[in-house]
Amino acid sequence: MDCGMRQSEHLWHRLYRCGFAAEFSAVWVDRLELDELAQRVGADFRRARHRDELAGEVSDVGDATVIWADRLTDDWLQIIEFQGYACSGALSELSAQGGRAVSVGWGLNGVRDLKYVSDGYYTTWFSVTVPGERYGNAPHALDPLAEGLAFDIGDTSWKTDPELPPAWPAFAEWSEWMEENGYSVGDEDDERPLPEAFGDFHGWSLNGYHPPLATCVTSALTLVGRLTGREIDEAWLSGSHPWLTLPHRL
Asked: Which InterPro entries match (predicted)?
């Protein structure tokens, strides 16, 4: 059963469909070609791969950092970090000589700050989940691109959002009860299968889904799309792109 989704979290669901929802790290860089990217971070090119092929090969490179990169627009490269954070940690180097770079990511340790660097200097960075605080040389540089977006994980307006799937509150309550009582879906000793009305919710929850979190990360990715001129989309994520390795995972 397709449970639907809220428009305010559509990019979280896009990444979920492509296998990136639970953990994701990306960098976008302008005025840089792929060979210059490789030179600046000391990477070696590998053959172009689809994301599923690459996921199967990452284990063969040991402790190396692995990135998946290609042109997003005429001006911007999109870099997905499959393993390690070499590019997220090199925004100054990647934006040097008049360029720009921006990074977004999340994982088991939560959502990282959105960071925007121009010509090697940190222009602004801010929490994607806590509103109000801005840092950097020009803390409010991206504010015009943030109009209408939500960066507040404590916001409770989702509870009355008409786009919220009606069964979600019931699923959340059921899931909490299952956890408190030591049950899990798919347990051979558990005769409590996932009710059909909950559809995709269990898969979402296993990937860290919660309405305000999905809205926050969608807002961050929407802001990046406004900056680059193209949102991260399934056409790019479903394509084959060069992958690059660095000697050590950072």
From this structure: DUF6461
- CA-to-CA distance for 69 and 62, rounded, in angstroms? 20
Residue 243, token pair as written in the block: 């992958």
Mind listing the pLDDT tens digit for each residue in 182-231?
A: 887 755 555 677 888 898 999 999 999 999 999 999 999 999 999 999 99
Amino acid (one-letter) located at 84: G
For the chain, the residue count is: 250
Cβ atoms of 29 and 39 closer than 8 Å: no
Encode 62-114 in three state secondary structure: CCCEEEEEEECCCCEEEEEEEECCCCHHHHHHHHCCCCEEEEEEEECCEECCE
Which residue range is the domain that position 54 belongs to? 7-246
- How many structural domains comprise the chain? 1
Q: What is the pTM of this model?
A: 0.92
